[in-house]
Every structure is written in structure tokens, then in C-alpha cells.
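Hi V.,

You were right to ask for the full record rather than a summary. Here it is.
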Amino acid sequence: MKKIWPFSFNFILFASTAFVSPFIVLYYQRLGFSGAQIGILTGITPLVTFFVAPLWSALADATHRHRLIMSLAIILGITMLVIYPLASTFLPILIIAILLNAFFAPISPFVDSATMHMLADEKELYGRVRVGGSIGYGLAAAVSGTIVQNFGLKFAFWGCAALFLLNFFISQKLEYGQIEDNNPIGGKIRSLLADPCWVLFLIVAFAGGLSLSAINNYFFPYMDELGASEATMGLALTVGTISEIPIVFFSNRLVKRFGSYRLLILSMILTSLRMFLFALATSPIIALFIQLLNGLNFPTMWVAGVSYADENAPPGLSTTAQGLFAAMVFGIGMAVGGLVGGPLLESLGGRSLYFFFGAAILVTVTSVELANRKLAAKQMTA
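Predicted structure:
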């Protein structure tokens, strides 16, 4: 019965994401912002997540005040969402966006940490809880596209705020592990970051952030470039989400078959392939078919990454480990993707942008795999 609460939280969390994230660059474009300004907004603001998410997570692990911190973050984030569309010039929007990212930074690692704790001896079933997010995103994507087309982009922010208000109440049902440990938390974090395997894992997470930036920030401008309507854009998200539901639901079998790390690498290689296919597409219909690969991309990467972080987290650092993973994905990975993607979109267009991201992800993951094999060989001979 406990699974219903993290399942419901994920359902609404990703449904709310479907209201804002895909439309954000279109919103900036229609405000008349330049490619450089869009790059700053989509690149610098996730850096806030990179720095703030581990701080929130470490504070929660040290004080055992996870629920209080989560509640405060959600309420403050809702406030930013309500006032976001009331601003129309660059500087106020930048300030609001920074605050929004700061307040929402701990939400994903907190819910993943709570999910793993509440699953107890059934941690391998994480994907069946996370699939709630896939279902919520798919349903909301179709609705949000229609709402935006009929009422305007401002309603995307207000719809997102309304859904997050529901999640405030659901968050009160989440439970977190509380392990008493006299060792300083700072020392354990430094020990974790000194582990070369963890460093390589975080580099792959960075590549995952690049892929998320490419899809979340630039997919709709890319579809707009191909001549798609807002409703078609929403349909594209729904198609992608439908493809991920069976993959995420049975992800426990994938984790068991490949292991969390190997599944992570495989998902990133397939993500690179998807980017190259987007670069070759010439119509919205082709892009819709390519969306069928979505289930094997970011959702699989996320399940594998959360599983790896949980498996390798030191005692008492479960939320912190998830926070580091989320910081690399939603923080520095998305930041670099945003800073590079804005100028690329303006100068070269969406198709070239996707070719660039596909190549960058493939080079990063290949380099990590080579380094990991070299490290394994060195450990065997030591």
C-alpha cells in the first residue's frame, strides 16, 4: 500500500513537468529573447540545481528533516511558478528562474530516496513506482499542448503550479530512512567523490543531463522548425511516453539482466542514436516515429542511475547520493546543454543541434567506458 504515495507523487511531478519544460524555450522565443539570452536562461539556471541539490540533500540527511525541507521547497517553488508568466523582460525572468531551480532542486532526489526506503526489500521494483511519472507525463503532454494552443503559454506555468499544490499534500505521506551515524557527513561525501568509479558514474550522469537538455529545452523549437503545431508537439510527447511505460514497468528485469551500470551505458548509447536520427528527420511525422525510442533513453538511464546510486551509497547517505546524481543530470549536464544549445539553435537550427548533442553524448560515454575498463584492469593487477 505504501507504494501508492511515491507512485502518485511521480505521476503528478512528471505531469507538471509536461506543462512547462517542453514549452520553455518557445516561451522565451516568443518574448523576443536572443539565442544568447535563451542559452543563459536554459544553461545557468540548472547550475543552481548542481550546487543546491547536494546541499539540500546533505542537510536533510544530517538533520533528518526531509519532510519539512520538501514541504518548504514545494510551497516556495509554487510561488515562483505563479509569478513566472507575469514577468516579460530578461532580468526578472532570470531571477525568478534561478529561485525556481533553487527551490525545486531537492524534490527529485528526495522522492527517489523515499521511494527506495519505502520499497524496503523490493528495491528492484523502483521502475514500477517511477512508471507513474511516465503515465502522468504522457497524459499531461496531450492536455498541455491543447491548453497552450487555445489559451496561451502563460497557462502552462499556472497548470504546473496547480499540480504541484496537489503534490504538496502527497509529499506528507512519504517516508525517509533515518540512520544514526556519528561520522561527519562532509567526510563521507569527500570519500564518495574520491572513488573513481563514482566519478565515472557522475560523468555519465552529466551526459544524461545533456540528453535531457536537448529533449526538454529544444525539442519543441525543433518540431516548430519542422512545421509542427502545438497540438502535434503534445502528441509527440505522448508517443514518447507511451513507448517508455512498458520499459520502465519491467525495468527490474533490465537491471537484473544487465546490472545498473551496464544498463546506464546502454541507454546512453541508444540516446546518442536517437539524436542522430532527429538530425536526419525532415518532417514532424518522421520525428513522431523516432519518439518511439524514448523509452530506451532518459527513463531507462534514470532508473539505472537511481539504482546505481542506491546500491553504492554509504550508510546514511542515500538522499545525498541521489542528490549528487540529480545534480549532475539536472544541474551541470543541463546547464552545459542549455548554454551551448541556445546559440546552436539560433545559428545552425534544430537538426544540427541534435547532431552535435548526439556526437557529444557518444564521445563522453565512450571515454568513460574506456576509462572504466582501464581502471578495472589496473585493479586486477594490483
